[in-house]
Amino acid sequence: MPNELQEVKFYQTGTFTVGNRLLEENERAVQANMRRTNSLNSGHRACQGCGEALGARYAIDAAMRATDNKIVAVNATGCLEVFSTPYPESSWQIPWIHSLFGNAAAVASGVAAALRVTGRTSTRVVAQGGDGGTTDIGFGCLSGMFERNDDVLYICYDNEAYMNTGVQRSSATPPTARTATTMAVGKEPGNVFGTGKNVPLIAMAHFIPYVATASVANLRDLEFKVTKAMSIHGARYVHIHVPCPLGWGSAPADTIKLARLAVETGLFPLFEAEHGEITGSTKIRRKVPVEDYLRLQKRFAHLFGAKPDEARLARVQANADRNIAKFGLMD
Amino acid sequence: MLKQTEGSHAVAEAIALCRPQVICAYPITPQTHIVEGVGEMVKDGTLANCEFINVESEFAAMSVAIGASAAGARAYTATSSQGLLFMAEAVYNAAGLGLPIVMTIGNRAIGAPINIWNDHSDSMSMRDAGWIQLFAETNQEALDLHIQAFRLAEELSCPVMVCMDGFILTHAYDRVDIPAQADVDAYLPPFQPRQILDTADPVTIGALVGPEAFTEVRYLGHHKQLRALSLIPKLATEFAAKFGRNSGGLLRTYRTEGAETIVVALGSVNGTVQEVVDDLRNEGAAIGSVSICSFRPFPISALREALQSAKRVVVLEKCLAVGLGGIVSDGVRKSLSGIQLKGYTVIAGLGGRAITRVSLRQLFEDAIADELEQVTFLDLNAEVVSHELEREAQARRTGPTAEAILRRMGTVASQIG
Amino acid sequence: MFQVRIHGRGGQGVVSGAELLSVAAFLEGRYAQAFPSFGSERMGAPVMAFCRIDVREIRLREPVMEPDALIIQDPTLLHQVDLFTGLPREGFILLNSTRSFAELGLAGFVGGFRPERLCTLPATEIALKHVGRPVPNVPLLAAFAAITGQIRQESVVKAIREKFPSAIAERNVAAAAEAYALASKGLETANA
User: Fold this and answer.
1) Of the N and C termini of chain A, which has fewer Cβ atoms inside 10 Å?
2) Is A152:A112 a contact under the CB 8 Å cutoff?
3) CB-CB under 8 Å, A99 with B66
4) What sign does the CA torsion over B19, B132, B324, B275 have?
């Protein structure tokens, strides 16, 4: 046996996973830690396969670890709020407030101000809401919080519709998706093209210190981004893609698979930005045609069948390709 | 210390003396001078340990106050009219959550038609939201009420709105006595929240409440207001002892002993009413007035006591229950349940129309002679109204009503009275 | 109670004039109430402000319908707004103009008033001369003190010094002094 230590090489095939024990302590998954805070405790009433419950658990625990367990959460009305506080129980183990549908960002600004003025400067604030409460009704307050650069991390769990009220279209609903208010009927079935808004880009337009998109397909990356966000003071925004089996008409077991497909088609780009400039993006390893993603969700069923809607599928593909080009997702 | 200053500024100084910790502001006429005043004090350091946040809407203003109050800070904001409506959802939310926020309302009419002048329609729109509503008669009372308001709000864990007439009080220069900081500190101790977002002792605030418990939660809010009926006079008495003047309380009577006719009103118009009462008393009329300070909780017993021996009551209101008549009148009627006396509702001062001594005198004389309609719109221009109704009867496409009336009457605010 | 109504246009300091007057009265230990008749912010629009002065607390909250004194800061309003409504024959009229009442075509109208209670004053010119801005309110206030005797000139000066930063205050004090002297002279002439 040689005296010097030999570098150990691990040859992995098929995945990029590395076991936690091979990583530095601070790079290990928060969730793998037996002493994780479980801020969103079990017993909540989320649907089987809920992407939002998964995302929230990872995000908040990461924020807790990053702040020495000193977080106040402000929640908008929506699925997360409803399933986590089923009267008369609460699954939150942290200080948590729910006010209204559209004001989470403003309430969070108020909490942050109060913490500052009462000298509790090591306690940090996380605001969270679904796409409805963030991109639509909460948009004004969100922009106000960004503009003031208030010390709040806003996390949006994007399942692409108003799920809690019965799957109605929001400005985050992708084109062609069927929702209760964009039914798959008529000349342009599902949500129409040429509508919608990209809130991460809008957040960047406020030049806030940190903006990132994340997905439950890559939970380590999600934890990483939330942890990074908490190391920064000022307005920060993390937009997490969270599949919803009920609203998307997908199998509960497919949640993570769908999230991964959304990333690998280019439909949901993963990137980070600081002060309005993109600082990095996650490359797509193997590009996947959008059909492979859409086919698994009943909300896109009208695009397939005996006569597939080639024209619309092509437009969705074009959107994906545009993202790949814009965010530099492929070498 | 005595000062000659603008009402808004006096209120700003009072707010500062109350050691607020988070103030959020969104501009709307006529409250703007108040938050500008406080904002300046924060920026130049006069008001220390206070965060002043420029929010992007009134909805955000109340929301920021909610977050701040829930996290244990003494929170304040101010608005009027459209702004109060814009934050309506949050106003109900604050009361429902039991957060002791204090808010100034610079009373202004609600549109359409858009109108920047004074009336009480804004505060009235939120009368059932669960907030305590106090009305100031003078600028001195306006500043005093804010000091009492913080104490009241925090003792009950219930938000309080202090209402002062826009322009008439907010923009009037008056002589006021600004209290000393030490005296205010002795009256208003530091905020001790009933509930607080605290990492050392986490709580969930704002959970869903089902049919099994909602009624009980609502009842407790109702009960708070009933408790306020005794707390408000108690705090006013304590205030009088400490600061040497009567401000606040549930209501104030003026020359009601032996009065056969009693006029009831809220806010600054009471000053003019009292002048006319004096004129008529000097001529031998048995007339008096009651100024209601606490509109919510409505002082049913105290009002009953004040009115029960009169023959007639004239309720002078700066608001209107469209299609019905008076809003304050409803409360007055409730307090007179079982007592027989004549009640007259007078809708006056809407959209800032001046309520003049001359008009009031004629009005009260008509009341004394029982020659008043059940509901009267004071100084209504009947000619303009009937002309417009005629126009509308003759054609379909008559255009915007407000336009037509303005054209007939002349330019906006060009008349003195 | 003494009631004053001030007419002018937005930007001429009508509202601050009323406020200054109220401060001057306050400094003499009296109660005073000053308030504007409001419109949205707009330079050049007709504006009114009111001031009541009394030895006891002022309860009245209506616009000044029957002024004891009228201050007209802008003569171009003379034929546009009914400025004189409610003014009794014993009332005071102070008018900002380089011309006399007669030259302004008001000889007939003012004929029924007491001559020692009428005053025209080139207030804008005085303000421009001392302060460099065409804001006539301070000179008119000094003239008001002179012809009505409702407030003392020292109170006007004190109120000016409270309101303005010192350099500007002294310029205004100078303008007030000239206006006071001019109005007093006119008073002597009227009383002669």
Assistant:
1) N
2) yes
3) yes
4) negative
C13 to each of A232, B414, C136, how far by Cα in Å? 50, 19, 7
Report, as an integer, the average pLDDT of A221-228.
96
| Residue ranges with strand state E in chain A | 71-75, 96-98, 124-130, 152-158, 210-215, 236-241, 271-274, 277-281
CATH number of C2-191: 3.40.920.10
Q: Is the ipTM of this complex over 0.85?
A: yes
Across the interface, do B56 and A96 touch by the CB < 8 Å criterion?
A: no
Task: Give CA–CA dist A48/C42, Å, rounded.
Answer: 62
Measure Cα distances from A304 to A264, A266, A308, B112, B274 in Å.
20, 20, 4, 51, 80
B204-205 vs C69-72, strand pairing mode = unpaired
Q: Which H or E run contains B217?
A: helix B214-243
Residues 62-101 of A with CB under 8 A from B: 69-72, 74-75, 82, 85-88, 90, 92-100
**Longest alpha-carbon distance in chain B:** 72
Q: Which CATH number fits domain B2-243: 3.30.360.10, 2.30.29.30, 3.40.50.970, 3.40.50.2000?
A: 3.40.50.970
* pLDDT tens, residue by residue, A270-291: 999 999 999 999 999 999 999 9
Structural tokens at position A57: 């658990």
pLDDT digits (tens, 9 = 90+) for A66-109: 999 999 999 999 999 999 998 889 999 999 999 999 999 999 99
User: CATH topology for B251-377?
Assistant: Rossmann fold (3.40.50)
pLDDT of residue C188: 76
pLDDT at B237 over 60: yes
pLDDT at B165: 98
CA Rg value for chain A: 20
Query: CB under 8 Å to C105, separation ≥6 — which residues?
Result: none
The gap from C-alpha A132 to its chain's centroid, in whole angstroms, comes to 13
User: What's residue C79's pLDDT?
Assistant: 77
Q: Which residues in chain A are classed under CATH 3.40.50.970? A: 47-326
Q: Which residues contact B135 (CB under 8 A, 6 or more apart)?
A: B120, B123, B163, B164, B266, B267, B292, B293, B294, B295
How far is Cα A17 from Cα A140, in angstroms, rounded to an integer? 40
Assigned CATH for A47-326: 3.40.50.970
Residue A16 has pLDDT above 70, yes or no: no
Return averaged pLDDT per consecutive 10 residues of chain C, 192 residues in all.
95 95 98 85 81 98 96 90 91 96 90 94 96 96 97 97 95 97 86 64
- B7-41 burial, b for 16+ CB within 10 Å, e for fewer? bbbbbbbbbbbbbbbbbbbbebbbbbbbbebbbeb
Check C65 against B358: CB less than 8 A apart.
Answer: yes
Residue A187 CB-density burial (10 A; 0-12 exposed, 13-18 middle, 19+ buried): exposed
Which of B173, B352, B357 is the closest to C33 by Cβ? B173
For chains B and C, count residue pairs whose Cβ atoms are closer than 8 Å. Answer: 81
* pLDDT per residue as tens digits for the range A156-177: 999 999 999 999 999 999 999 9
How many Cβ atoms are within 10 Å of B225's Cβ, its own excluded?
19
Q: Rounded CA gap, A119 and A143, in Å?
A: 26
Domain boundaries, chain B: 2-243, 251-377, 386-415
What chains are in contact with B, requiring at least 3 Cβ pairs below 8 Å? A, C
- What pLDDT score does A2 carry? 53
Name which of B167, B171, B175 to mutate to probe chain C: the one with the most chain C Cβ atoms within 10 A of its Cβ: B175
Q: What is the DSSP letter of A133?
A: I
Distance from CA of C8 to the nearest CA of B (A): 13
pLDDT band at A11 (very low <50, low <70, confident <90, very high): low
| Chain B residues touching residue C39 (CB < 8 angstroms) | 412-413
Q: What is the pLDDT of residues B315-338, one digit of tens each?
A: 999 999 999 999 999 999 999 999
